[in-house]
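DUF4440 domain-containing protein
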Amino acid sequence: MALDLTTLLELERQLAHATNGDPYREILAPHARVVVPGFVLDRENCAMAMDASPGWDRVDFENEQLVRINSDAAALVYRFTGLRGDDRYIADMVSCYVDTSEGPRLVTHQHTMHWEGVELEV
């Protein structure tokens, strides 16, 4: 399967709409790392976190961009907005994929949370 914008966005949407960790176990490479605020997770810990988390009520992607690394690797960069009840989460995302015999696999993913509108305790 090609590492094109349409394909990688579809994989990201599968992850964003997941109701458990199974899509993470399938799409993430065995050695993958996911960096979210406060944590660096391997594939199974990320999937277990998703098993324990409620899904999003709504997700939106904006400004999606494909950054070619080489013929077998590409990064997808975009702005993510997720709504869960009255809570809103906005982050810039970077997902790096490699092409494998099983299809594209996510090897690294990072959230950079937007702090706009977030009150920090100092």
